[in-house]
Amino acid sequence: MLSEQQSSDFEHVAGNAAGSNTAVPGWMQSMQQQWKLYAGVVAVVVIGIGAAWWYTSSSDEKNAAAAAELARIRSVFEAGQFEQALSGEGVMVGDQQAMGLKQIADTYGSTPAGQVAALLTGNSLVNLGKFTEAEPYFTSARSSSALIVEVGAIQGLASCMEATGNYAGAADLYVEAAKRAADTGLEPACYLKAALCFEAAKDTKQAADAYTTIAKQYETSEVAPQAKTGLARLGMAID
Fold first, then answer.
1. Distance between CA atoms of residues 197 and 61, nearest Å
2. CA distances for 22 relative to 3, 148, 221, angstroms
3. Angle CA(70)–CA(108)–CA(17) in degrees, nearest 5?
4. Residues 144, 184 within the same domain
5. Residue 117 lies in a domain
6. Residues 153, 187, 4, 151, Cα dihedral to 10°
7. C-beta neighbour count of 101 within 10 angstroms
8. Which has the closest alpha carbon to 148: 127, 120, 110?
9. What gap in Å lies between CA 57 and CA 64, rounded to an integer?
10. Average of pLDDT values for 3-15?
11. What mean pLDDT comes out for the span 185-193?
């Protein structure tokens, strides 16, 4: 389970991102302003609570090299300087320019650290509104053996679909992320995004099911009031 501080970190968004150009109801528009949270801040949580694992999980030379490069560029990503984090331009380590996230992911994508870099690359691209470019990086990160990286990647792919108006596809992925995220503390937020996307896709039954899951199984979570509001909006109540 994430700690209170980690859950708080998960509720903050680094940087700005372009929203979908698909016409949606006003309530959905306000929620869409937060969509990058689910792709993006999972990556920040990865850095915040898992900074050590890629240094210690493998003695592989390539993984160690990728981890070292990540250490040089991570503060730029954390500061929300996504263009610079992607390219590494202007980030100096001694007299050498740091490797950008894209290059780390492209060069070391088969390693644990490279998969973290892929997640951060996808997140950076999403925050810059470059959804199509982000997708292959999230796909790469999805193969990670680290659960939180995998869940972040699934959320990233879902956010790309959501941002381009594929609400049904996004909803299915958010549900998958919620199920994979069992006992991490991320489940309620994933189910909320799924419910909102099902609602936007006019799938009232699935939306109600997701809202009800939050209200019953995660009734003390921060998103429980939003789930109850969603049920009210659908003209339903908790049994």
1. 42
2. 36, 30, 30
3. 60
4. no
5. yes
6. -10
7. 31
8. 120
9. 10
10. 32
11. 90
CA angle 38, 138, 140 (to 5 degrees): 150
Please give the torsion angle defined by the CA atoms of residues 9, 136, 162 and 213, in that order, rounded to the nearest 10 degrees.
Answer: -60
CA 220 from centre of chain: 22
Segment 71-126, tens digit of pLDDT? 899 889 888 899 999 999 999 888 889 999 999 999 998 898 899 899 999 989 98
- State whether 158 and 208 are in the same domain: no
Look up residue 49 and give its two tokens: 């609570």
Residue 176 CA to residue 154 CA, distance in Å, equals: 8
Mark which of 117, 133, 164 sits at the end of a domain: 164
Q: How many domains does the chain have?
A: 2
| DSSP-derived 3-state class of residue 182 | coil
Read off φ and ψ for residue 181, nearest 5 degrees: -85, 15
Beta-carbon count within 10 A of 120 CB: 31
Q: Flag whether pLDDT at 68 surpasses 50.
A: yes
| pLDDT band at 25; cut points 50, 70, 90 | low
Q: Is the pLDDT of residue 178 over 90?
A: yes
Give the Å distances, CA to CA, from 179 to 36, 76, 203, 217: 20, 32, 20, 13
CA 145 to chain centroid, in Å, comes to 16
